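Please predict the structure of the following assembly.
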Amino acid sequence: MLAQFLIHPPIQLGPIGPELVLTGTAIVVLLGAAFNPRIGHSTLLLVSLLGLAGAALVSIGLWDWGGELTVLAGMVATDRFAVVARLILLGIAAMGLVYGYHYFRRSGEARAEFYPLVLFATAGMTLIAAAADLILVFLALEILSLSLYVLTGISARLSSVEGSMKYFLLGAFSSAFFLYGVAMAYGATGSTRLSAIAHALAGQTGSLGLALAAVAFLGIGFGFKVAAVPFHMWTPDVYQGAPTPVTAFMAAGTKVAAFAALIRVLETSFQPLTLDWTPLVWTIAAVTVVAGSLIAIAQTDIKRMLAYSSIAHAGFVLIALTAAGQDGISAALFYLLAYALMVLGAFGVVMLVSARGEGRTSLASYAGLYRRSRLLAGLLTLFLLSLAGIPPTAGFIAKVNVFRAAVAAGHWPLVLVGVLASVVAAFFYIRVMVLMYMQEPQDDAEPDRSPWPRVAVAVPAVLTLLFGVFPGIVLGVLDKAAILRW
Amino acid sequence: MLEAAPEMDWLDWILLVARVVVVFFAVLISVMLLIWMERKVAADMQTRMGPMRAGPRGVLITLADGIKLFFKEGITPTLADRPVYLLAPVIAMIPAFLAFAVIPFGTGVTLFGRHVPFQIADLNVGILWVLAMGSLMVYGIVLAGWSSGSNYPLLGSIRSTAQMISYEVGMGLALVAVLMYSGSLQMSQIVASQDRVWNAIPQFPAFAIYLIAGLAETNRPPFDLPEAETELVAGYFTEYSGIKFAMFYLGEYVNLVVVSSIAVTLFLGGWRGPHPSFVAWLWPLLWFIAKVVAVVYLYIWVRLTLPRIRYDRLMSFGWKFLIPIGLLWVLATGAVVVLPDVYGKGALLTGALIVVGAILVASLLWPLIAPRRQSAGETPQ
Amino acid sequence: MAPDQIVFWVFAPVSVGSAVAMLFQRNAIHAALFLIVNFFTLAVFYLVLGAPFLFAVQIIVYAGAIMVLFLFVIMLLGVDREESLVERLRGQRPLAIVLGLGLAAEIFVTARASLGLARGPANFDETVNVGGNAQALSHVLFRDYFLPFEVTSILLIVAAIAAMVLAQRRERTTVEAAGEAEV
């Protein structure tokens, strides 16, 4: 009887190597901190970063995977899309860890659990980027969400706890929608494998009502995660309440991971229904860019403003999705990469300006930043320009690519909406610059002057410029990665 | 199982009902004798006589107690939540009886040309049924404690819930090891798999974990914290009297019989034992009863020997010792079960299993033997 | 009527009744009790449908473990008093009822129209339960779904860390603050 169990399709662990490395590192860090409570956090940071580097190496090794399209009983995709998404996510995690190490050491809230939680969240994110089965997508989504709920509330501040609670409640709500969507997809097609769903739908002539309902419910679930309007309600409170490094990690990581999964789900399993879901994505994209940009104007807190800006950016990625196919995916990937860089950088500067804890996040605190620290003001200017989509930054190239893909797919009205929203958005980005350069400082609070965090914040700045001036160095890679294999 | 149901004719139904009735009364009688036995053994160990008046050597003492309780006035506290308060004793009692449904008491007998097994239902998920009933037994205690509308019962029931859930994990791990070793969830198959050697020998750590967890599950000393009279009056049933109290009492002892019967079935070869060939159906039954009595005696012995454990130590023992050991043992058992299929070293590995078991038992007993540390032991380790 | 149908018609009203009763209980403990009854009837349905393993697991995990913890929390937190049901935001409830009913109707219609585009074989029970229910389930769980199974364990680790972090927070931060002050 046992022989039955042992004769098994060979287990190919290679394609989930990055996740194995990540969870392994997380457990090592966790145990290390548990058995030696006096362990230095720099050691934990170092081990965690080594784990991320290892995972990145394993991911790169998967670039030329010559084996099957999906492994582990069709659960995990082995395409280059997964590789690229993983690499972006691992980079985000590294930045988040470095920020967090610095931030918590200064705020006196250092907790050893921060590192394993970030690593687990990253494992969830990278797994979601490669998941080829809706059940696995759901589980990975839960891993990353659960880690982020706790990371949001890891500080004892009331706003942090409040953000954590809101995130948890709405996140659980959205998970229910997602799960309902999975159930409907199963009901309609008899499988949760993305490829099997696609095959079942491709030959279908009867009513597709249930499959469409599945798309809608899955869309709501993803909509919550990427913070698309009208599922964005949690975003400002959570981004504002969470410790800034967590906000940076979450804002960049969740968006990349959730969009990676959304792209995979829409472009593989529901590819036969493209004509049906495109109007849906179209509408949400339009509403999201407009609402995100308009509400951001009214904000007086920089973290809230960046939160609404991140909502607007989710809309731009959705615009890329309306252009189905390789062009759209490539544009979306580049946009996500650029967005991750600029949002990491912007929140990094916010962290340094606050100096210690969350004291100074109101826009007024940025008045005259240029006099206090030319470097920080310059960096923030660069990131804001990139967020606004002004050359020569990566944000500009990203927007151009997205609009080009959408126009090529015939969605020029949507592009028009997007361009107008960008103009509106530029207003509040430039307002911050005006504050920084043209006003006198209102208090004599000093920003953080530690050297290493500044180096860390400079990394996304350099890359933002690099990809803005020479986008070709990544576009080629992204184009190769923009083909989903299933 | 229900799929087989359509083929049953009226005679089968009658036999099934008869088996249920017989088992029910057998359990009641066994509880009666068990309580008598406990009092007699206790008396013996304390060099006194114990109950002597009711029946020969006091054997009917439980009956007398029962009649007394039956005629006592039933009091419902004013603050009690009435429906739940009345329901709780029933809930405490029923799962204990239901658990007997899957225990094979013997081989069976041929009546009216049909084979009648000494087992009510040979479910193919027998072990899980036992676990399920065990987990339902908590409700009686929880609800009793809450519905009494009084503090001591509430505290007692909270303690008890925590304790039973914690030790249920350990017990579950012990059962998992057994079912892996036997390769079946079905009680009859597990008994059949012990034709050469009782599971208690190769699975000794599991057996030890099971016996300890069984103590905690039945709330018996030294794990009777939920009803520690020095702290909680009488724990969850403080507010109960008369027949409702009797039900709790009955449930608790039925539970003890269940735990012992399962120990016998899973670890001590069930009804197996050497016997002469005449009246072949009777001997397995006697073997089963003898083994159950032996296990029950062990439990009584433990109760009379060991003092009550402090609550935090109880929990830390369960979580930090019993469960990790159980997990390790499941791991080891898995290795031993699967590896021979790969490498074909069956006999060798059985030996290794026994060695590992001995080491684990030594570590299990070490805390009892080890000299106490100086630092008053405030940090449970 | 076949025995399984008898069982169904006995337990179905209990199941629906307990679910409805749960919704209308104001006392949290009573609601939890009705939920337990409901779980129990579901377990019986699993048994009738030829899934004895699910039956046992449903009782052990849901009725046995999770609901006991529910009761435990309700009792410890003392939330067994009646909840205030006054609306803070006006018009939420009628709106919720209308939208909820609309969604339910929509799902019902679409599901009816397109349910079962992929149909299982007629003798589903036998083909699925080859070699016994528990065995068949283990094949599915440890072959096709072994990665999700393992991933779930990571989810549980994260949940455990989460609980620890949130539970220890207050204590820890005061300790850290004291340490800061010394420095």
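The interface with chain B takes residues 2-4, 7, 27, 29-30, 33, 36, 47-48, 50, 52-53, 55-57, 59-60, 63-65, 68-69, 71-72, 75-76, 80, 125, 132-134 of chain C (CB under 8 Å). The longest helix of chain C spans residues 146-182.
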